[in-house]
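TA notes. Do not distribute before section.
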Amino acid sequence: MFIIRWIIEQHIHSIPIEKIIRAFQILWWIIPAVLLNMAVKRFLWLPLEETTGRTVPNLIRFVTASLIYILALFGIIAFVLERPITSLLATSGVVTVIIGLAVQMNLSNIFSGIALNIDRSLRIGDWVKIGAFDDSKVVNMNWRVTQIETRLGYIVSIPNSTVATSEIYNFSYPDNQYWLRCRVPINPKYDPNKVEEILLKAVLSVEEGVVKDFKPFIWLEKFKVEQVSKLVGIYVIFFKTENYQYKFRVLKSVWKNIWISLNQAGIIPTTTPIFEGGDEEKALAADVLTKSQLQEMVVGRSPRLN
């Protein structure tokens, strides 16, 4: 101890006190920058990786750390060395603009990917419809793109910035159940109560796909009141099913049961109503489903009763 103290006393006087003070002032900026960078890693990147299950891109880590140390360097130049930093700020501003323009889309996709992973709008394995893209299954998500597999079997890679700004319909969240809707045009001469009973039994008699715990909703959507020969009732059927992957299989089974049940009861769905008269009657015909439109099934998350 005495030897160490003697060495310090002998050499401390040979170092100008101004340099010692300046060294401590520089450390005053460097140490907080190092601690701040460590805090960002510990309290931001690690929780984010645990939440999303993905590694934060090195680009984001590098940009964040560089920003912290550059600010510390500017502080040292301005307050410790007492040098003007106007020219440095101008130069760094130009460099920042150039770099920003070069990586603008990548940064946008990365931050959008972070947002998507935090709010959990999409999960791998979910059946979704993103914007104008076809309904597909999410097969992969990273910080740059979201990859979906269509029903035709091909993979579509969508930039995360596009996903974040598009409407997202998730048919697998919060659970794997969702609502389907189909329309059946029937001549209004038949008793609506009887028709609804037949349709209800037809839907519930489907062996697989239809959730039996939820009673289907059935009502008349359109009803033209003119003459008896011009009346067409459009029955709307909402029923709950599960596993969006088999949507068309379920729709086929439901429509098949509906057609068989109605025919057994002597009720034939109206496919091509006959209208007699002028242009007014022809205009009414345009509002009635044709035979090809009978196969069209419109998908919805839940029924709107209003």
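Switch to the second chain here.
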Amino acid sequence: MIFAQKGLFRQFQQAWRCTSCPIIFTDEVSFVSALSGPQSVVDFNSSSTGPISGNEFTAQGFIFDSPLASPLGQLEIAPPSFFASSNYLNIDRRPFAPGDDGNEDDLEITIVGNWQAVGFRIIDGDNLSGESVTVFDQSGGVIHMTTSGPTSFFGIITDVPIGRVFVDEAAFDSDDVGYDNFRLGNAVNDADGDAAGCPLACVPPPSYMVSWWSGDSNANDIQDGNDGMLQGDTTFAAGKVDQAFSFDGSGDFVSVPDSTDWDFGSNDFSIDLWVKFDQIKDSMFIHQQSGSAVGGWEFDFQQSNGILVFARDPFNAAIIRPWSPQQSTWYHLAVTRTGFEYRIR
């Protein structure tokens, strides 16, 4: 495996490092108690039922959207029923309706204004086994990704303004999803500038992690011993936490001998990293090949097209996602595969 660089970015760091935020809540009472100062709430109780465009609540800080075209992606304010005591936000077929509509009830939430906390209820009849929630900052970087599915409530407090929230509901999960009680707020900042209550501690790496190159003064794999070698003028600089690899864009990279550790086969996997640009250019983050043969998978940024690209091999279509990074800003990037589905986050 090779960490390569064909453009210019200053710092590169494997993820799963120490962090002070975010704080994730699955209990609405605890989330509300952790907020301080002005808040904005959308609960739909005073809204008329029926179809909406999703822009009706911009003044309250929310724009709602569905990635599906109407009618499958039609947003509506639905009336109370046996599972909800008040109006709620619905997409196409309502929760607990007979049968599944066979389409994902994904919800895109754009946050208007500078808010560092957002929370909302999720109504799902199969105990939310299919939902994942990804929270982005205002530059498009991933703040947090919950892949196992929240409970009936999801809340997050961060130390940066939130730009967007995406709820991904797996298709064919036997029912449909509704949303309610959206809330925006902030937490009181403590002496070190973090949102109050954010623990100054390390996030433990997952037990199934294969390799981890932290970039702390060397190219060692601190998880499984697949140590790398600095190539070109690669050096180190201040990272998101501790140090990170620093590349000048002229032949710098870190090489790692090929290993069966990343012969993923049909298994699920994730590849993630932190990156910060000094100059926005085409950049190869990770490239894998076996021996001298080309054609392994690669993860890169194409500045001219404004996209992140993950290519599995020369024989399959690449996975892409629009991305517009800013200079001198840390971004957490990830590629995941679950079953036959690939995603760039």
